[in-house]
């Protein structure tokens, strides 16, 4: 009978992303292995548990966020998988979010809403924030749009306080042109931005649209207005980390290069639910498409709703959004398919019906053309179930 491994999980439970990682580990254990789990009460970047240096377990999955815990972990001599971007142990396997893909998703979400001015608000103490800022800035500048940024006072700083952060954000917001779409490094920073907007009586999303990361439902729904957020696949990160550790505990050599997990999509709430387009007819057309994309509409249906020539509509769409009405319809349908593939167990036939495709064969062709891989492969790689 196979021996049960003892595994320590040094992962905090105080935030949505970390809890998602733990859920993914739990899923792996249910499906593949029987592990005896040690899960101490752990704060982010906190002191390592006193028992760790003497622990005689088989493996560890940890958010390695300080040199102190890194040193203790290295001295254990045990197989370790890191689920932090801090990289205090650069020679061990690590699983993290794909921050380039997150930045691309955020940029596309805000550009789809017609903004010409963009900004990023980050926390310089975190690698993932700096990477998201770097990629987001490059995307926006490559599009020829206006870009602004602020590395706000870090929550890890001894100088941090809520009032210091709010004063800094208020001063920055006053200087930004409007309307502006702001990408915040994570939901907590995005909520702080919304508080600053409320203090300045700035209309959200009409003057300032705010987008976070992690889609912490509690934080997002309690925000005023409710916060839009990029949905990371934390569960997949935890699942893959558990798989790596399992291989290491079996004696297999594992490459220490990063395993980057793709984000799932954007959960749109009121903080970005706007079209910043100074063209009423095209704004109406985009609104009509977004309301009806999954019911099988085509460009002729849009033209019946907005009585202008097809040539004029396509020219104005390209100028304002960078794509044609047909491309906008397909984009929305493909996004719907992605969500259903990762969040449900519906068959491809059922997904085709839900997303407005007449046949599952047409869905497969359109999906592979847009995404580069078949729907079945996408589901295997990105499923959150």
TrEMBL record:
Matches recorded under InterPro entries: Homeodomain-like_sf, HTH_AraC, HTH_AraC-typ_CS, LacI/GalR-like_sensor, Peripla_BP_I, XylR_PBP1
Domain of life of the source: Bacteria
Keyword field: DNA-binding, Transcription, Transcription regulation
Classification via Gene3D superfamilies: 3.40.50.2300, Homeodomain-like
PROSITE patterns from the UniProt entry: HTH_ARAC_FAMILY_1, HTH_ARAC_FAMILY_2
Entries under SMART domains matching the protein: HTH_ARAC (SM00342)
Domain HTH araC/xylS-type: 283-381
Molecular function, one GO term: transcription cis-regulatory region binding
Keyword Cytoplasm carried by entry: no
Name this polypeptide is given: Xylose operon regulatory protein
């Amino acid at each position: 009978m196979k021996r049960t491994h003892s595994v320590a999980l040094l992962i905090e439970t105080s935030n949505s992303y970390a809890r998602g990682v733990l859920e993914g580990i739990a899923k792996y254990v249910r499906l593949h292995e029987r592990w005896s789990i040690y899960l101490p009460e752990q704060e982010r970047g906190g002191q390592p548990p006193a028992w760790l240096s003497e622990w005689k377990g088989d493996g560890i999955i940890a958010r390695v966020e300080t040199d102190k815990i890194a040193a203790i972990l290295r001295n254990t001599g045990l197989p370790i998988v890191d689920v932090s971007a801090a990289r205090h142990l650069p020679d061990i396997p690590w699983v993290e979010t794909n921050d380039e893909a997150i930045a691309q998703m955020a940029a596309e979400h805000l550009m789809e809403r017609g903004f010409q001015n963009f900004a990023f608000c980050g926390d310089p103490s975190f690698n993932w924030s700096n990477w998201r800022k770097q990629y987001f800035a490059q995307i926006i500048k490559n599009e020829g749009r206006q870009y602004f940024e602020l590395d706000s006072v870090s929550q890890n700083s001894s100088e941090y306080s809520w009032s210091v952060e709010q004063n800094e954000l208020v001063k920055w917001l006053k200087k930004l042109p409007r309307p502006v779409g702001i990408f915040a490094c994570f939901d907590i920073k995005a909520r702080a931005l919304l508080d600053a907007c409320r203090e300045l009586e700035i209309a959200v999303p009409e003057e300032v649209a705010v987008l976070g990361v992690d889609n912490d439902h509690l934080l997002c729904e309690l925000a005023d207005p409710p916060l839009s957020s990029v949905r990371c696949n934390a569960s997949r990160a935890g699942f893959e980390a558990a798989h790596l550790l399992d291989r290491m505990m079996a004696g297999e050599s594992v490459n220490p290069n990063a395993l980057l997990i793709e984000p799932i999509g954007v959960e749109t709430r009121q903080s970005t639910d706007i079209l910043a387009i100074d063209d009423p007819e095209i704004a109406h057309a985009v609104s009509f498409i977004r309301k009806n994309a999954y019911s099988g509409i085509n460009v002729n249906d849009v033209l019946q709703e907005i009585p202008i020539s097809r040539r004029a509509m396509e020219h104005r769409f390209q100028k304002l959004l960078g794509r044609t009405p047909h491309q906008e319809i397909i984009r929305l349908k493909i996004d719907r398919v992605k969500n259903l593939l990762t969040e449900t167990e519906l068959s491809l036939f059922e997904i085709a019906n839900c997303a407005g495709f007449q046949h599952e064969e047409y869905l497969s062709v359109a999906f592979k053309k847009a995404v580069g891989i078949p729907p079945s492969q996408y589901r295997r790689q990105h499923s959150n179930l």
